[in-house]
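Suppose you are handed a protein chain with no further information: no name, no annotation, nothing but its sequence. What can you learn? This example shows the usual starting point.
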Amino acid sequence: LNGYSGRTVLFARNSAYKRGMSRIPKHLGQNSALPATPQEAEQAFYEAFQRADLDALMAVWAEDDEVFCIHPGGSRLTGLANIRESFRQLFRDGANMRFQLRGVQQIRGGLLAVHSVYEYITLVGERRQASPVVATNLYANSGGGWRMVGHHASTVPNAEAEPPAEKNTRILLH
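A reasonable first move is to predict its three-dimensional structure. Written in structure tokens, the prediction is:
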């Protein structure tokens, strides 16, 4: 948990990344439909992360023993119980970070989607951004909607302080 070190990440609500996406329920769960697209699943993940809402965040994850999560500087966590505990620890201090997703790249083929994003993080109460984190998020279509099956985040050494110009790349494989 070194890279996030007990801090919660906030999704930038007016990010260019969200253009064209339908509104996502605040809490995915028993009475809510699963996200219809991988983009909606990603939005739900980061919005739950923003609110330090463990139940909503875990509702985005696929119910599978093989799901995995790698936090910056951390080891690979496999299975929902381990992932839940890692986010419980991250959320113990509440929501204290904001970030913007930039440099979004998406690859989608059949039942699997891969998103690579730069997370530009700002601590609440500070003006200066921390070093960016590059994250790869994996989503699978479970038949009823899209769920997260993997999240791998790493710090970016020697990165520029300002985000790169917005470039959204989407590739659809058939």
